[in-house]
Amino acid sequence: MFRSSFVEVIPFTLETAERYAEICAVNGVSSADAIRLACAAQARTDLFLTNDSDLIGKHVPGIQFIAGIDSDVL
Question: What pTM, to 2 d.p., does this model score?
Answer without folding.
Answer: 0.82
